[in-house]
Amino acid sequence: MSFSSIGLAIHGVASGPVTVDMAVVFALILLALVLFATERLPVDVTALLVMVLLIVLEPWTRISAREGISGFSSPATITVLAMLILSTGVNRTGIVQSIGRKMSDFAGLDRRKQLAATIGVTGPISGVVNNTPVVAILVPVITDLAHNGKTSPSKLLIPLSFASMLGGTLTLVGTSTNILASDIAARIGAESPELGLHAFGMFEFTKLGVVVFAVGTLYLMTIGVRLLPERVPAEDDLVEEYDLQEYLADVVVPANSPFVGQTVEEAFEDGEFDVDVLQLIRYGERFDEPLARKEIHENDTLRVRANRESLERIMDAEGLTFSGGPRTEDDLHPGEEEPVLVEVVIPSGSFLVGETLASSTFRQRYTANVLAFRSRGDVVRERFEDIHIRVGDTLLVQAPPDSLTRLVQNEDFIVAHEFEGTDYRSEKIPFAVAIVAGVVALPALNILPIVVSALAGVVTMILTGVLKPNELYRSVEWNVIFLLAGVIPLGLALQQTGAAELLGNVVASTETFLPVIGVLWVFYVATGLLTSVISNNASVVLMIPVAASAAQSIGANAFAFVLAVTFAASTAFMTPVGYQTNLFVYGPGGYTFSDFLRVGAPLQMLLSVVTVLGIAYFWGVRV
Question: Who contacts 263 (Cβ-Cβ below 8 Å, separation ≥6)?
Protein backbone atom coordinates (compact mmCIF):
# COMPACT_ATOMS: atom_id res chain seq x y z
CA MET A 1 0.00 0.00 0.00
CA SER A 2 1.52 3.35 -1.08
CA PHE A 3 0.75 6.71 0.42
CA SER A 4 -1.37 7.55 -2.64
CA SER A 5 -3.91 4.97 -1.48
CA ILE A 6 -4.33 6.38 2.03
CA GLY A 7 -7.94 7.28 2.69
CA LEU A 8 -9.32 10.29 4.46
CA ALA A 9 -9.08 10.22 8.24
CA ILE A 10 -12.05 10.93 10.48
CA HIS A 11 -10.91 13.44 13.08
CA GLY A 12 -10.56 11.91 16.52
CA VAL A 13 -10.52 8.28 15.35
CA ALA A 14 -8.37 6.06 13.15
CA SER A 15 -9.58 5.53 9.58
CA GLY A 16 -10.10 1.80 9.99
CA PRO A 17 -9.77 -1.21 12.27
CA VAL A 18 -6.49 -2.84 13.17
CA THR A 19 -5.95 -5.71 10.74
CA VAL A 20 -4.01 -8.90 11.43
CA ASP A 21 -1.20 -7.59 9.22
CA MET A 22 -0.95 -4.40 11.26
CA ALA A 23 -1.07 -6.34 14.52
CA VAL A 24 1.88 -8.50 13.43
CA VAL A 25 3.93 -5.44 12.50
CA PHE A 26 3.03 -3.70 15.78
CA ALA A 27 4.11 -6.85 17.67
CA LEU A 28 7.47 -6.81 15.87
CA ILE A 29 7.90 -3.11 16.65
CA LEU A 30 7.14 -3.77 20.31
CA LEU A 31 9.67 -6.62 20.32
CA ALA A 32 12.28 -4.34 18.76
CA LEU A 33 11.58 -1.54 21.24
CA VAL A 34 11.91 -3.89 24.23
CA LEU A 35 15.17 -5.39 22.93
CA PHE A 36 16.62 -1.98 22.06
CA ALA A 37 15.70 -0.52 25.44
CA THR A 38 16.84 -3.47 27.57
CA GLU A 39 19.97 -4.23 25.53
CA ARG A 40 19.34 -7.94 25.97
CA LEU A 41 20.89 -8.28 22.52
CA PRO A 42 23.30 -5.95 20.73
CA VAL A 43 21.35 -3.40 18.67
CA ASP A 44 22.63 -4.78 15.36
CA VAL A 45 21.59 -8.32 16.30
CA THR A 46 18.14 -7.03 17.28
CA ALA A 47 17.84 -5.31 13.90
CA LEU A 48 18.82 -8.48 12.04
CA LEU A 49 16.37 -10.53 14.11
CA VAL A 50 13.55 -8.15 13.17
CA MET A 51 14.59 -8.29 9.51
CA VAL A 52 14.49 -12.12 9.51
CA LEU A 53 11.10 -12.17 11.26
CA LEU A 54 9.70 -9.70 8.72
CA ILE A 55 10.74 -12.01 5.88
CA VAL A 56 9.56 -15.21 7.60
CA LEU A 57 6.18 -13.62 8.34
CA GLU A 58 5.80 -12.29 4.78
CA PRO A 59 2.10 -13.27 4.44
CA TRP A 60 1.32 -10.70 7.16
CA THR A 61 4.21 -8.22 6.96
CA ARG A 62 4.17 -8.09 3.12
CA ILE A 63 7.97 -8.00 3.14
CA SER A 64 9.51 -10.31 0.54
CA ALA A 65 13.04 -11.64 0.84
CA ARG A 66 14.20 -9.05 -1.69
CA GLU A 67 12.59 -6.22 0.28
CA GLY A 68 13.86 -7.65 3.56
CA ILE A 69 17.49 -7.43 2.51
CA SER A 70 17.03 -4.15 0.62
CA GLY A 71 18.56 -2.28 3.54
CA PHE A 72 21.98 -3.63 2.60
CA SER A 73 21.75 -1.97 -0.82
CA SER A 74 20.07 1.19 0.42
CA PRO A 75 21.86 4.41 -0.59
CA ALA A 76 21.64 5.48 3.06
CA THR A 77 23.51 2.39 4.27
CA ILE A 78 26.21 2.71 1.62
CA THR A 79 26.59 6.46 2.23
CA VAL A 80 26.98 5.97 6.00
CA LEU A 81 29.54 3.22 5.36
CA ALA A 82 31.53 5.54 3.10
CA MET A 83 31.32 8.47 5.54
CA LEU A 84 32.66 6.30 8.37
CA ILE A 85 35.66 5.42 6.22
CA LEU A 86 36.19 9.07 5.30
CA SER A 87 36.07 10.01 8.99
CA THR A 88 38.78 7.46 9.74
CA GLY A 89 40.92 8.95 6.97
CA VAL A 90 40.59 12.39 8.56
CA ASN A 91 41.49 10.85 11.92
CA ARG A 92 44.63 9.23 10.49
CA THR A 93 46.01 12.63 9.48
CA GLY A 94 45.77 13.99 13.02
CA ILE A 95 44.16 17.25 11.90
CA VAL A 96 41.37 17.11 14.51
CA GLN A 97 43.89 16.37 17.25
CA SER A 98 46.02 19.28 16.06
CA ILE A 99 43.01 21.60 16.22
CA GLY A 100 42.33 20.25 19.70
CA ARG A 101 45.83 21.14 20.90
CA LYS A 102 45.47 24.67 19.53
CA MET A 103 42.13 24.83 21.32
CA SER A 104 43.87 23.85 24.57
CA ASP A 105 46.48 26.57 24.11
CA PHE A 106 43.72 29.13 23.50
CA ALA A 107 41.62 28.10 26.51
CA GLY A 108 44.35 27.84 29.15
CA LEU A 109 42.93 28.00 32.69
CA ASP A 110 39.81 29.97 31.73
CA ARG A 111 36.80 27.64 32.17
CA ARG A 112 34.55 29.73 29.95
CA LYS A 113 37.12 29.63 27.15
CA GLN A 114 37.53 25.89 27.62
CA LEU A 115 33.78 25.36 27.19
CA ALA A 116 33.56 27.79 24.26
CA ALA A 117 36.49 26.10 22.52
CA THR A 118 34.99 22.64 23.06
CA ILE A 119 31.66 23.64 21.53
CA GLY A 120 33.12 25.94 18.88
CA VAL A 121 35.45 23.29 17.48
CA THR A 122 33.25 20.21 17.86
CA GLY A 123 30.09 21.63 16.28
CA PRO A 124 31.43 22.83 12.91
CA ILE A 125 33.66 19.74 12.47
CA SER A 126 30.62 17.51 13.16
CA GLY A 127 28.81 19.27 10.34
CA VAL A 128 31.19 17.97 7.67
CA VAL A 129 32.57 14.79 9.27
CA ASN A 130 30.23 12.20 10.80
CA ASN A 131 29.75 13.33 14.40
CA THR A 132 30.23 9.95 16.09
CA PRO A 133 33.90 9.51 15.07
CA VAL A 134 34.51 13.18 15.90
CA VAL A 135 33.58 12.58 19.53
CA ALA A 136 35.68 9.40 19.66
CA ILE A 137 38.67 11.44 18.43
CA LEU A 138 38.07 14.36 20.79
CA VAL A 139 37.37 12.51 24.07
CA PRO A 140 41.10 12.24 24.94
CA VAL A 141 41.77 15.77 23.67
CA ILE A 142 39.03 17.32 25.82
CA THR A 143 39.92 15.18 28.85
CA ASP A 144 43.51 16.41 28.69
CA LEU A 145 42.38 19.99 28.05
CA ALA A 146 40.29 19.82 31.23
CA HIS A 147 43.03 18.36 33.43
CA ASN A 148 45.67 20.75 32.06
CA GLY A 149 43.28 23.65 32.66
CA LYS A 150 42.53 22.56 36.25
CA THR A 151 38.91 21.78 35.33
CA SER A 152 36.86 18.65 35.97
CA PRO A 153 36.39 16.74 32.67
CA SER A 154 32.75 16.34 33.74
CA LYS A 155 32.30 20.04 32.94
CA LEU A 156 33.34 19.56 29.31
CA LEU A 157 32.50 16.03 28.15
CA ILE A 158 28.69 16.30 28.08
CA PRO A 159 29.05 19.60 26.16
CA LEU A 160 31.39 17.75 23.76
CA SER A 161 28.71 15.15 23.04
CA PHE A 162 25.86 17.67 22.86
CA ALA A 163 27.86 19.99 20.58
CA SER A 164 28.52 17.11 18.20
CA MET A 165 24.80 16.43 17.98
CA LEU A 166 24.02 20.10 17.44
CA GLY A 167 26.72 20.28 14.77
CA GLY A 168 25.31 17.18 13.11
CA THR A 169 22.18 19.17 12.22
CA LEU A 170 24.17 21.58 10.05
CA THR A 171 24.47 19.42 6.93
CA LEU A 172 23.20 16.21 5.38
CA VAL A 173 26.39 14.30 6.23
CA GLY A 174 26.67 15.48 9.84
CA THR A 175 25.03 12.33 11.18
CA SER A 176 23.84 8.97 9.90
CA THR A 177 20.33 9.94 11.04
CA ASN A 178 20.15 12.73 8.45
CA ILE A 179 21.33 10.43 5.68
CA LEU A 180 18.80 7.73 6.59
CA ALA A 181 15.95 10.26 6.92
CA SER A 182 16.81 11.65 3.49
CA ASP A 183 16.66 8.20 1.94
CA ILE A 184 13.31 7.36 3.57
CA ALA A 185 11.83 10.72 2.52
CA ALA A 186 12.97 10.15 -1.07
CA ARG A 187 11.40 6.68 -1.16
CA ILE A 188 8.07 7.89 0.25
CA GLY A 189 8.13 10.84 -2.14
CA ALA A 190 8.66 8.53 -5.12
CA GLU A 191 5.64 6.42 -4.08
CA SER A 192 3.42 9.41 -3.35
CA PRO A 193 4.50 12.45 -5.41
CA GLU A 194 1.62 14.53 -4.01
CA LEU A 195 3.42 14.70 -0.67
CA GLY A 196 6.26 16.70 -2.19
CA LEU A 197 8.94 14.73 -0.32
CA HIS A 198 12.43 14.36 -1.74
CA ALA A 199 15.98 13.54 -0.74
CA PHE A 200 17.55 16.30 1.33
CA GLY A 201 20.06 18.62 -0.27
CA MET A 202 23.49 18.95 1.34
CA PHE A 203 22.64 22.33 2.90
CA GLU A 204 18.83 22.19 2.66
CA PHE A 205 18.26 22.55 6.40
CA THR A 206 21.51 24.34 7.30
CA LYS A 207 19.71 27.58 8.13
CA LEU A 208 17.64 25.77 10.75
CA GLY A 209 20.72 23.88 11.93
CA VAL A 210 22.54 27.16 12.52
CA VAL A 211 19.66 28.44 14.66
CA VAL A 212 19.54 25.19 16.66
CA PHE A 213 23.32 25.19 17.12
CA ALA A 214 23.33 28.83 18.25
CA VAL A 215 20.50 28.32 20.78
CA GLY A 216 22.09 25.09 22.05
CA THR A 217 25.45 26.81 22.46
CA LEU A 218 23.90 29.71 24.37
CA TYR A 219 22.15 27.24 26.69
CA LEU A 220 25.33 25.24 27.38
CA MET A 221 27.36 28.40 28.02
CA THR A 222 24.83 29.81 30.50
CA ILE A 223 22.32 27.41 32.06
CA GLY A 224 23.93 24.11 31.12
CA VAL A 225 27.30 24.90 32.67
CA ARG A 226 25.60 25.52 36.01
CA LEU A 227 23.77 22.19 35.86
CA LEU A 228 26.84 20.15 34.96
CA PRO A 229 28.32 18.21 37.91
CA GLU A 230 32.00 17.81 38.82
CA ARG A 231 32.10 14.03 39.05
CA VAL A 232 35.76 13.65 38.13
CA PRO A 233 38.39 15.62 40.10
CA ALA A 234 40.29 18.27 38.18
CA GLU A 235 43.54 16.65 39.35
CA ASP A 236 44.41 13.75 37.08
CA ASP A 237 44.70 10.86 39.56
CA LEU A 238 42.82 7.76 38.48
CA VAL A 239 43.54 5.80 41.66
CA GLU A 240 41.72 8.42 43.71
CA GLU A 241 39.00 8.94 41.10
CA TYR A 242 38.08 5.23 41.14
CA ASP A 243 38.53 4.95 44.95
CA LEU A 244 40.99 2.12 44.48
CA GLN A 245 43.00 2.72 47.66
CA GLU A 246 41.22 -0.12 49.48
CA TYR A 247 41.71 -2.49 46.55
CA LEU A 248 45.46 -2.10 45.96
CA ALA A 249 47.93 -3.66 48.37
CA ASP A 250 51.56 -4.74 48.69
CA VAL A 251 52.19 -8.14 50.30
CA VAL A 252 55.60 -9.60 51.18
CA VAL A 253 56.36 -13.29 50.55
CA PRO A 254 58.23 -14.69 53.61
CA ALA A 255 60.60 -17.66 53.48
CA ASN A 256 57.97 -20.13 54.75
CA SER A 257 55.29 -19.20 52.22
CA PRO A 258 54.14 -21.93 49.80
CA PHE A 259 54.49 -19.30 47.03
CA VAL A 260 58.29 -19.43 47.18
CA GLY A 261 59.57 -21.30 44.12
CA GLN A 262 56.27 -21.12 42.25
CA THR A 263 55.62 -18.93 39.22
CA VAL A 264 52.98 -16.21 39.53
CA GLU A 265 50.72 -18.24 37.23
CA GLU A 266 51.10 -21.38 39.39
CA ALA A 267 50.50 -19.46 42.62
CA PHE A 268 47.17 -18.03 41.44
CA GLU A 269 46.05 -20.58 38.86
CA ASP A 270 43.12 -22.09 40.81
CA GLY A 271 41.16 -18.82 40.58
CA GLU A 272 39.86 -19.26 44.12
CA PHE A 273 40.79 -15.68 44.97
CA ASP A 274 39.72 -12.52 43.11
CA VAL A 275 43.31 -11.29 42.91
CA ASP A 276 45.39 -9.79 40.09
CA VAL A 277 49.17 -9.46 40.45
CA LEU A 278 50.12 -6.07 39.00
CA GLN A 279 53.80 -5.95 39.82
CA LEU A 280 56.57 -7.96 41.44
CA ILE A 281 59.15 -5.94 43.38
CA ARG A 282 62.51 -7.53 44.24
CA TYR A 283 65.23 -5.52 46.04
CA GLY A 284 63.89 -2.29 44.58
CA GLU A 285 63.63 -3.62 41.01
CA ARG A 286 60.10 -3.72 39.62
CA PHE A 287 58.88 -6.37 37.19
CA ASP A 288 55.70 -5.81 35.21
CA GLU A 289 53.82 -7.84 32.65
CA PRO A 290 54.30 -10.53 31.53
CA LEU A 291 54.49 -11.92 35.05
CA ALA A 292 52.88 -15.32 34.54
CA ARG A 293 56.20 -17.20 34.25
CA LYS A 294 58.08 -15.09 36.79
CA GLU A 295 59.25 -17.21 39.71
CA ILE A 296 58.47 -15.90 43.20
CA HIS A 297 61.43 -15.62 45.59
CA GLU A 298 61.70 -15.13 49.32
CA ASN A 299 61.09 -11.51 50.41
CA ASP A 300 59.53 -10.57 47.06
CA THR A 301 56.78 -7.96 47.27
CA LEU A 302 53.66 -8.59 45.22
CA ARG A 303 51.55 -5.58 44.34
CA VAL A 304 48.01 -6.89 43.93
CA ARG A 305 44.46 -5.79 43.17
CA ALA A 306 42.09 -7.52 45.54
CA ASN A 307 39.14 -6.80 47.78
CA ARG A 308 39.66 -6.91 51.54
CA GLU A 309 38.12 -10.36 51.95
CA SER A 310 40.25 -11.97 49.23
CA LEU A 311 43.36 -10.25 50.53
CA GLU A 312 42.84 -11.50 54.09
CA ARG A 313 42.11 -15.04 52.91
CA ILE A 314 45.18 -15.27 50.70
CA MET A 315 47.40 -13.80 53.40
CA ASP A 316 46.16 -16.37 55.90
CA ALA A 317 46.39 -19.27 53.46
CA GLU A 318 49.78 -18.46 51.98
CA GLY A 319 51.51 -16.81 54.93
CA LEU A 320 51.90 -13.41 53.26
CA THR A 321 52.60 -10.19 55.15
CA PHE A 322 50.76 -6.93 54.43
CA SER A 323 53.11 -3.99 53.84
CA GLY A 324 50.82 -1.13 52.84
CA GLY A 325 49.96 -0.16 49.28
CA PRO A 326 49.68 2.70 46.79
CA ARG A 327 47.30 5.53 47.72
CA THR A 328 47.70 7.65 44.58
CA GLU A 329 48.68 7.17 40.95
CA ASP A 330 52.18 8.48 41.74
CA ASP A 331 52.52 5.81 44.43
CA LEU A 332 51.46 3.17 41.93
CA HIS A 333 53.97 4.33 39.32
CA PRO A 334 56.56 6.71 40.82
CA GLY A 335 57.81 9.41 38.45
CA GLU A 336 57.86 8.23 34.85
CA GLU A 337 58.00 4.58 35.78
CA GLU A 338 56.23 2.12 33.50
CA PRO A 339 53.52 0.98 33.04
CA VAL A 340 50.88 3.69 32.81
CA LEU A 341 47.28 3.87 33.96
CA VAL A 342 44.59 4.87 31.45
CA GLU A 343 40.84 4.79 30.91
CA VAL A 344 39.72 2.84 27.86
CA VAL A 345 36.20 3.39 26.47
CA ILE A 346 34.52 0.61 24.47
CA PRO A 347 32.97 2.02 21.27
CA SER A 348 30.33 0.37 19.12
CA GLY A 349 31.85 -2.22 16.84
CA SER A 350 34.53 -3.24 19.35
CA PHE A 351 35.22 -6.97 19.52
CA LEU A 352 34.76 -6.67 23.31
CA VAL A 353 31.05 -5.78 23.07
CA GLY A 354 29.08 -8.76 24.35
CA GLU A 355 32.22 -10.46 25.63
CA THR A 356 33.62 -10.64 29.15
CA LEU A 357 37.18 -9.85 30.16
CA ALA A 358 37.71 -13.56 30.70
CA SER A 359 36.24 -14.74 27.37
CA SER A 360 37.97 -12.00 25.37
CA THR A 361 41.41 -12.84 26.83
CA PHE A 362 41.98 -9.07 27.02
CA ARG A 363 44.81 -9.36 29.55
CA GLN A 364 46.73 -11.89 27.47
CA ARG A 365 46.21 -10.04 24.19
CA TYR A 366 47.41 -6.68 25.46
CA THR A 367 49.61 -7.63 28.44
CA ALA A 368 47.40 -5.32 30.48
CA ASN A 369 45.59 -5.45 33.80
CA VAL A 370 42.07 -4.11 34.36
CA LEU A 371 41.88 -2.47 37.79
CA ALA A 372 38.27 -1.26 37.67
CA PHE A 373 35.23 -1.34 35.44
CA ARG A 374 32.72 1.48 34.94
CA SER A 375 29.38 0.58 33.38
CA ARG A 376 26.31 2.82 33.07
CA GLY A 377 27.54 5.05 35.89
CA ASP A 378 28.42 2.24 38.32
CA VAL A 379 32.04 1.50 39.26
CA VAL A 380 32.92 -2.15 39.81
CA ARG A 381 36.25 -2.81 41.55
CA GLU A 382 36.03 -6.55 42.10
CA ARG A 383 34.84 -9.72 40.39
CA PHE A 384 34.34 -8.02 37.03
CA GLU A 385 35.98 -10.76 34.92
CA ASP A 386 32.61 -12.26 33.97
CA ILE A 387 30.58 -9.07 33.42
CA HIS A 388 29.38 -8.74 29.84
CA ILE A 389 30.80 -5.58 28.27
CA ARG A 390 28.51 -3.04 26.60
CA VAL A 391 29.09 -0.05 24.35
CA GLY A 392 30.24 2.91 26.43
CA ASP A 393 31.70 0.82 29.27
CA THR A 394 35.02 2.14 30.56
CA LEU A 395 37.95 0.02 31.71
CA LEU A 396 40.68 1.37 33.98
CA VAL A 397 43.72 -0.31 32.48
CA GLN A 398 47.32 -0.63 33.63
CA ALA A 399 49.53 -1.29 30.62
CA PRO A 400 53.17 -0.92 29.55
CA PRO A 401 53.87 1.67 26.81
CA ASP A 402 54.07 -0.84 23.95
CA SER A 403 50.67 -2.29 24.88
CA LEU A 404 49.27 1.21 25.25
CA THR A 405 50.43 2.05 21.74
CA ARG A 406 48.53 -0.94 20.42
CA LEU A 407 45.41 0.12 22.33
CA VAL A 408 45.63 3.68 20.98
CA GLN A 409 46.01 2.46 17.39
CA ASN A 410 43.19 -0.10 17.66
CA GLU A 411 39.72 0.95 16.48
CA ASP A 412 38.25 -1.32 19.17
CA PHE A 413 39.15 1.20 21.88
CA ILE A 414 38.97 4.89 22.71
CA VAL A 415 41.87 5.69 25.03
CA ALA A 416 40.72 8.70 27.08
CA HIS A 417 44.12 10.37 27.18
CA GLU A 418 46.39 11.69 24.44
CA PHE A 419 49.88 10.25 24.14
CA GLU A 420 52.87 11.65 22.35
CA GLY A 421 54.39 9.55 19.65
CA THR A 422 51.12 8.55 17.97
CA ASP A 423 51.91 8.11 14.29
CA TYR A 424 49.75 10.51 12.27
CA ARG A 425 49.98 11.11 8.52
CA SER A 426 50.16 14.87 8.88
CA GLU A 427 51.62 15.26 5.40
CA LYS A 428 48.28 14.00 4.04
CA ILE A 429 46.20 16.73 5.71
CA PRO A 430 45.81 18.80 2.51
CA PHE A 431 44.56 15.73 0.64
CA ALA A 432 42.08 14.80 3.38
CA VAL A 433 40.69 18.35 3.59
CA ALA A 434 40.34 18.59 -0.18
CA ILE A 435 38.62 15.19 -0.40
CA VAL A 436 36.09 15.98 2.33
CA ALA A 437 35.41 19.37 0.73
CA GLY A 438 34.81 17.64 -2.60
CA VAL A 439 32.50 15.04 -1.05
CA VAL A 440 30.40 17.87 0.41
CA ALA A 441 30.55 20.21 -2.59
CA LEU A 442 29.66 17.79 -5.41
CA PRO A 443 26.20 16.85 -4.07
CA ALA A 444 25.61 20.48 -3.00
CA LEU A 445 26.16 21.58 -6.61
CA ASN A 446 23.98 18.71 -7.91
CA ILE A 447 26.93 17.24 -9.80
CA LEU A 448 26.84 13.84 -8.09
CA PRO A 449 24.49 12.10 -5.64
CA ILE A 450 25.87 11.94 -2.11
CA VAL A 451 26.32 8.15 -2.25
CA VAL A 452 28.50 8.42 -5.37
CA SER A 453 30.40 11.41 -4.01
CA ALA A 454 31.14 9.62 -0.73
CA LEU A 455 32.33 6.44 -2.44
CA ALA A 456 34.49 8.49 -4.80
CA GLY A 457 36.01 10.16 -1.76
CA VAL A 458 36.89 6.75 -0.27
CA VAL A 459 38.64 5.68 -3.47
CA THR A 460 40.51 8.99 -3.64
CA MET A 461 41.70 8.62 -0.04
CA ILE A 462 43.17 5.23 -0.92
CA LEU A 463 44.83 6.53 -4.10
CA THR A 464 46.37 9.51 -2.29
CA GLY A 465 47.62 7.45 0.65
CA VAL A 466 45.41 9.09 3.28
CA LEU A 467 44.16 5.58 4.03
CA LYS A 468 45.77 2.22 3.38
CA PRO A 469 43.70 -0.47 1.65
CA ASN A 470 43.88 -2.78 4.67
CA GLU A 471 42.33 -0.05 6.84
CA LEU A 472 39.07 0.09 4.89
CA TYR A 473 37.22 -2.66 6.68
CA ARG A 474 38.53 -1.72 10.13
CA SER A 475 37.20 1.82 9.54
CA VAL A 476 33.57 0.72 9.35
CA GLU A 477 31.40 0.38 12.44
CA TRP A 478 29.72 -2.74 11.15
CA ASN A 479 27.16 -2.79 13.92
CA VAL A 480 25.86 0.58 12.62
CA ILE A 481 25.66 -0.80 9.07
CA PHE A 482 23.79 -3.93 10.17
CA LEU A 483 21.50 -1.81 12.34
CA LEU A 484 20.56 0.34 9.34
CA ALA A 485 20.13 -2.65 7.03
CA GLY A 486 17.99 -4.43 9.60
CA VAL A 487 15.57 -1.64 10.54
CA ILE A 488 14.95 -0.22 7.05
CA PRO A 489 12.55 -3.09 6.14
CA LEU A 490 10.58 -2.33 9.31
CA GLY A 491 9.73 1.07 7.88
CA LEU A 492 8.60 -0.62 4.66
CA ALA A 493 6.34 -2.95 6.61
CA LEU A 494 4.79 0.01 8.43
CA GLN A 495 3.84 1.53 5.09
CA GLN A 496 2.79 -1.57 3.17
CA THR A 497 0.48 -2.96 5.86
CA GLY A 498 -1.21 0.38 6.50
CA ALA A 499 0.16 0.53 10.04
CA ALA A 500 1.77 3.90 9.35
CA GLU A 501 -1.55 5.21 8.08
CA LEU A 502 -3.34 4.02 11.21
CA LEU A 503 -0.79 5.57 13.58
CA GLY A 504 -0.66 8.75 11.52
CA ASN A 505 -4.41 9.15 11.70
CA VAL A 506 -4.39 8.60 15.47
CA VAL A 507 -1.83 11.38 15.95
CA ALA A 508 -3.55 13.57 13.36
CA SER A 509 -6.72 13.37 15.44
CA THR A 510 -5.07 15.74 17.91
CA GLU A 511 -5.83 18.48 15.35
CA THR A 512 -9.29 18.65 16.90
CA PHE A 513 -7.79 20.48 19.87
CA LEU A 514 -4.31 21.48 18.62
CA PRO A 515 -3.26 23.73 15.72
CA VAL A 516 -1.12 22.11 13.01
CA ILE A 517 2.04 23.51 14.58
CA GLY A 518 0.96 21.80 17.83
CA VAL A 519 0.69 18.44 16.03
CA LEU A 520 4.16 19.07 14.60
CA TRP A 521 5.46 19.67 18.13
CA VAL A 522 3.83 16.41 19.30
CA PHE A 523 5.82 14.52 16.66
CA TYR A 524 9.05 16.22 17.71
CA VAL A 525 8.53 15.37 21.39
CA ALA A 526 7.39 11.80 20.65
CA THR A 527 10.47 11.17 18.50
CA GLY A 528 12.76 12.65 21.13
CA LEU A 529 11.30 10.44 23.85
CA LEU A 530 11.52 7.36 21.64
CA THR A 531 15.14 8.10 20.75
CA SER A 532 15.97 8.37 24.44
CA VAL A 533 15.47 4.64 24.85
CA ILE A 534 16.24 3.17 21.41
CA SER A 535 18.57 3.91 18.52
CA ASN A 536 18.21 7.28 16.80
CA ASN A 537 18.23 5.52 13.44
CA ALA A 538 15.47 3.15 14.51
CA SER A 539 13.40 6.14 15.65
CA VAL A 540 13.66 7.76 12.24
CA VAL A 541 12.63 4.56 10.47
CA LEU A 542 9.58 4.16 12.68
CA MET A 543 8.46 7.80 12.89
CA ILE A 544 8.95 9.26 9.40
CA PRO A 545 6.29 7.10 7.67
CA VAL A 546 3.86 7.90 10.50
CA ALA A 547 4.69 11.62 10.33
CA ALA A 548 4.19 11.72 6.56
CA SER A 549 0.84 9.94 6.86
CA ALA A 550 -0.31 12.30 9.62
CA ALA A 551 0.69 15.34 7.56
CA GLN A 552 -1.32 14.08 4.59
CA SER A 553 -4.34 13.39 6.78
CA ILE A 554 -4.52 16.98 8.02
CA GLY A 555 -3.36 18.68 4.84
CA ALA A 556 -0.05 19.76 6.34
CA ASN A 557 3.42 20.14 4.85
CA ALA A 558 4.88 16.61 4.91
CA PHE A 559 8.44 17.93 4.58
CA ALA A 560 7.99 19.96 7.76
CA PHE A 561 6.89 16.84 9.65
CA VAL A 562 9.76 14.75 8.29
CA LEU A 563 12.23 17.47 9.25
CA ALA A 564 10.84 17.66 12.80
CA VAL A 565 11.35 13.91 13.23
CA THR A 566 14.88 14.12 11.79
CA PHE A 567 15.99 16.93 14.08
CA ALA A 568 14.40 15.31 17.15
CA ALA A 569 16.20 12.01 16.47
CA SER A 570 19.50 13.82 15.88
CA THR A 571 19.38 15.67 19.21
CA ALA A 572 18.74 13.05 21.90
CA PHE A 573 20.11 14.69 25.03
CA MET A 574 18.12 13.18 27.89
CA THR A 575 19.73 9.77 28.40
CA PRO A 576 23.22 8.34 27.88
CA VAL A 577 21.82 5.49 25.78
CA GLY A 578 19.83 7.67 23.37
CA TYR A 579 22.81 8.60 21.24
CA GLN A 580 26.17 6.90 20.74
CA THR A 581 28.23 9.99 21.53
CA ASN A 582 26.63 10.19 24.99
CA LEU A 583 27.90 6.69 25.71
CA PHE A 584 31.43 7.70 24.69
CA VAL A 585 31.60 10.40 27.39
CA TYR A 586 29.58 8.52 30.04
CA GLY A 587 32.55 6.72 31.62
CA PRO A 588 35.36 9.30 31.25
CA GLY A 589 33.06 11.98 32.67
CA GLY A 590 32.12 9.80 35.64
CA TYR A 591 28.48 10.68 34.98
CA THR A 592 25.35 9.14 36.42
CA PHE A 593 22.22 8.50 34.37
CA SER A 594 20.47 11.45 36.02
CA ASP A 595 23.21 13.89 34.91
CA PHE A 596 22.08 13.59 31.31
CA LEU A 597 18.45 14.08 32.29
CA ARG A 598 19.22 17.15 34.43
CA VAL A 599 21.30 18.86 31.72
CA GLY A 600 19.62 17.42 28.64
CA ALA A 601 15.90 17.62 29.42
CA PRO A 602 15.70 21.46 29.57
CA LEU A 603 17.75 21.66 26.36
CA GLN A 604 15.50 19.10 24.66
CA MET A 605 12.37 21.05 25.59
CA LEU A 606 13.94 24.37 24.57
CA LEU A 607 14.93 23.00 21.17
CA SER A 608 11.52 21.38 20.67
CA VAL A 609 10.05 24.89 20.63
CA VAL A 610 12.91 26.51 18.68
CA THR A 611 12.99 23.77 16.02
CA VAL A 612 9.24 23.67 15.47
CA LEU A 613 9.02 27.46 15.24
CA GLY A 614 12.03 27.47 12.90
CA ILE A 615 10.43 24.89 10.62
CA ALA A 616 7.19 26.87 10.56
CA TYR A 617 9.09 30.07 9.73
CA PHE A 618 11.38 28.66 7.01
CA TRP A 619 9.08 26.11 5.34
CA GLY A 620 5.57 26.62 6.69
CA VAL A 621 3.33 23.93 8.17
CA ARG A 622 0.51 24.01 5.62
CA VAL A 623 0.68 22.76 2.05
Answer: 292, 293, 294, 295, 296
